[in-house]
Amino acid sequence: MQRFSVRNCVTTNCRGSVQALPQLRPAMNDPESREMLLSIAPTALPIGISGIEKRFGGVSVLRDLSLDVAAGEFLTLLGPSGSGKTTLLMILAGFVRANAGSIKVGGEEIIAMPPHRRNIGMVFQNYALFPHMNVFHNIAFPLKQRRVSTAETAERVEKALDLVQLKGLGERRVDQLSGGQRQRVALARAIVFEPRIVLMDEPLSALDKSLREHMQIELRNLHRRLGMTTVYVTHDQREAITMSDRIAVMNAGCIEQIDRPEVLYAAPKTRFVAGFIGDSNFIPVESRNGSVWYEDRKIRMTSAVPAAGCHLMVVRPEKLRLVADAQPAGSVNVIPATVGDVIYQGDSFACYATLRDGRQVTLRDYCRSDVLARLPGPGEPVNLGIDAEDVVLVAAD
Amino acid sequence: MTKLLCIKSLAVAGLLASVAVPASAADTITAASWGGTYQEAETKAFFDPTAKELGITIKQDTTNGLDDVRLQVTGNAVKWDITELGADECARGSKEGLFEKLDYSVIDKSGINPKLVHDDWVGISYTSVVLIYRTDVFGDKGPKTWADFWDVEKFPGRRALSGSQATETLSVAALAKGIPIDKVYPVDIDGALQSVDKVKGHIDAWWTSGAQAMQLVKDGEVDMASIWNGRAGTLRKEGAPVSFSFDQGVLTADCMVIPKGSKNKDLAMKALAKFVSPDLQANLPLYVDNGPANEKAFETGKIPPERIKDINSAPDNVKKQVLQDPEFWRDTLVEATEKFNNLIQQ
Amino acid sequence: MSMQSAILPHAGARTLNADALHADARRETFGLLALLSPGLLLVFAVIIVPIGWLFWLSLFDETGSLSASNYARFFQQPSYIKTFLTTFKVAFAVTGACVVLGYPLAYMLSQLPRRAASICLILVILPFWTSVLVRTYAWLVILQRKGLINSWLIDLGVISQPLPLANNFAGVIIGMTHIMLPFLVLPLYASMKTIDIDCLRAGMNLGASPAATFRQIFFPLSLPGLASGVVIVFVLCLGFFVTPALMGGGKVIMWAMRIEQTTSLYSNWGAGAALGVVLLAVTLALLGLFQWLLGARATGVWSSR
Ligand SMILES: Nc1ncnc2c1ncn2[C@@H]1O[C@H](COP(=O)(O)OP(=O)(O)OP(=O)(O)O)[C@@H](O)[C@H]1O
Ligand SMILES: [Mg+2]
């Protein structure tokens, strides 16, 4: 229960946010949430997933997948369509049988346990509310299965409705609710029985942008208050970054990288991760003789020099900067380029430049007056600067 | 009045139908009967010879009975010049005035039972209701009389009677009470119903069509039944283990009429005269088991003697049977049928 | 038009274009009505007019004069009440048998993989391609005293006396159930196919055992399909003729058989028409009751789709 929420500000427009500004705040200090925890207090448990294999017919969908989720953690599975996110969630919930592997919840093996005994709450992508029951009975359903007394059921449903800010809507029919309200009913239903773990499969994908952003904050707050172990699925990288403690990036049935969002953004380990999270420029470099070279220029970098061979330098657009001096100075690398186009975007601008080898790169900066004053026009030669500490190398494929 | 209107509009459909067939020439008449093997036999026995002799064309149609005639007559759309009906239907239709008067100076009625000779209808053939039983169950010691049929202790077994022909079943029920064949008519309906009541708990099927009666007996679904003699004869020919006789049979007649408004009334009269003449009447039993209505047919010498004993209307067989009285049923049919339905429905 | 109303003194912001919009709405209504009119006319011509005519006919006795005698008959002749009760008894029994057999069948079909389901569905529909008469005779061959079932059972020594399966109430129920089953299974199957599998998963996820999930979620969600199947089967049963006539051994008289009998017995269309009108009225009343009892819940589920 000793959790701290991490509010970070990692967006592609935020320059210099490698050290995200964490607002450390113990959840227990919030009097409101303490009261909630007394009424709905899930015993957060860690999940240990190891060696999961899943094949549909001959097609391997999950390959030797292992993943540990800490108790009370908000972990997001992020990946392109078809990467196996839903399948993993279904295996966790018990609706799909894995071919091999182990799932331990709090040390207990559950891989062969029938779904209704797993005590794992799930929010379905389409909510899967019961259309023949009203809101109250939907939320009371898990309690009814557990033979909770009528009085206690009423009380707990009331609390859950309160929690998702739907007080007084208990008698509504499900089809009389808005999308966001349905989503909250699904959430209330998934947590009212104090599950050890909550799984959510793209719960916000059906909502419009503003409602989605609002619900992201609500979900996050709810998680902070209740502290249950949460596995969240999305293919929206922004959503993943804003909400998660950690993100597991999945690709073709494997986990490519699992890390805190800011680490994932600042230090992607593979080209796939770099390309999937945020915008990236990939500049080919070569490691030889204990240094890294871009053409004839030696790259200054703070991280360790990788093994000899070809690599890609990952540079986020906002890490590139226009510098006056064509010669590298101090810890700044300089790469010459020619401006193709400059696009004004209100608070910022994007500069599309061509390197000498013909490769396109993008630079993004705020429209500060000092920058605007030096803005180049199309066709002008420019020098792009990269700080040594922003240099990230990934294997070229 | 409005009903008439409705029927008129129905008749328009009938008219249209008759327009489709080219209007009959003066020497063409249309005769309607029940269809099937019976009508085929009539064609060979009556229609073809008559057409040939009179040099006319006889077109054929099939009828469902009195309702069809009523529809044509009240709708002023008479398609038929001669049609066959059951005798009790003739009696009812006559009361409703649906038929043309018959000219007995053209039609020779001698040899036809006077009960079947009326102003506007005349008998044409006979069907009998007989008692049939399975010899694989009873050997030749099966029920011979309706009293036997009613005796469930002496003749245990499964039974079927007609549920659709109340008149026949009530006649049979009267016989079962021991009433002699010449005293059955007029039927004491309440007495007959009481008699039905006694046996109804032992009836396993009330048949509603000749085919059904035949199938019940043939498949051994019942061991004894009332059945039309034609159907019984077919069963015997097919080699089914059955036995029946005309003892205590119930003779029901069919009759022919000329619907009121027939356009070829005179020609129809001549044709009808031929149909009931002993010579053509004698043809009928050569093709079906329905006996001729004119008993003079048996004197023509056309019917082989060994065939005569199997014909229900042969003089020797007629003596053993009850003749249904059409005019009695004309007046009592509705009441008797309703009471009968009420009794047999559980 | 809109310009005019904008210029008119009373035309404030609230009434801007109100007339034009109103006229447009009216035009749309008429347009839709015009589009509907062929259908409405057809319904009027083939349903309303004949039923009206039926009712009109039933008001006349055989002499053609206005009278209630066709209806009075129901009370004078107890056999009509018996027929009526028999008809509903048969309809209820067949509907019940169809539900008992059809629900598991439809459930099985809905759970089968697509290909297997469509093959089985064809098997369910196959009997539609043979005439009712043929199928009824086939049942007679199977069920009667010396039929297939009884011969087998006797040969196997299971029974010593043949079971009374044909020419009685049981025979009618068996024969009619076979004919009616597809009418229940098809709508039921269709509605079961639309049940969201995630709803069932959610049920189990929330702690309901498979049996409880079926009872509390699958079954209630399949009720609309069941209701329409039941209504179809029930109404079809009320007017059934061939099978009861052949399989009932004359002991099970249904309303339709009575209509035929009565019409010819009384030499009067009105006599049969009155029976038709009564059946229609009672059926409608029953359906109304059904709708009232089940409707609210069923429509609740429907509208959420
Ligand atoms: N029942 C199934 N039978 C066969 N293949 C399946 C089945 N379910 C999923 N797959 C395949 O498994 C792969 C992973 O599917 P999954 O639904 O887990 O993807 P996902 O990551 O959730 O994608 P999305 O973001 O589109 O929801 C896909 O290639 C899919 O085609
Ligand atoms: Mg998915």
Structural commentary:
The complex is a heterotrimer of chains A (397), B (346) and C (305). Chain A is α+β, with helices and mostly antiparallel strands. Chain A has ten helices and 22 strands. Chain A folds into two domains: 176 residues, 3-Layer(aba) Sandwich (Rossmann fold), CATH 3.40.50.300; 117 residues, OB fold (Dihydrolipoamide Acetyltransferase, E2P) (Beta Barrel). In chain A, the strands form five sheets. Chain A has a six-stranded mixed beta sheet, sandwiched between helices. A five-stranded antiparallel beta sheet of chain A has the order 15-14-13-16-22, with no helix packed on it. A five-stranded antiparallel beta sheet of chain A has the order 17-21-18-19-20, with no helix packed on it. Chain A is elongated and about 75 Å long. In chain A, 41% of the residues are buried. With 346 residues, chain B is an alpha/beta fold. Chain B folds into two domains: 164 residues, D-Maltodextrin-Binding Protein, domain 2, CATH 3.40.190.10; 146 residues, Periplasmic binding protein-like II (D-Maltodextrin-Binding Protein, domain 2, 3-Layer(aba) Sandwich). In chain B, strands 1, 2, 3, 4, 5, 6, 7, 8, 9 and 10 form a ten-stranded mixed beta sheet that branches. Chain B is globular. Chain B starts with a helix and ends with a helix. Chain C folds into two domains: 31 residues; 226 residues, MetI-like (MetI-like fold, Orthogonal Bundle). Chain C is built from 13 helices and no strands. In chain C, helix 2 runs antiparallel to helix 13 and helix 4 runs antiparallel to helix 5. Chain C is flat and about 90 Å long. The N terminus and C terminus of chain C are likely disordered. At the A-C interface, strand 8 and helix 3 of A face helix 9, helix 10 and helix 13 of C. Bound molecules: adenosine-5'-triphosphate (ATP) and magnesium ion. Magnesium ion (MG) binds next to helix 2 of chain A.
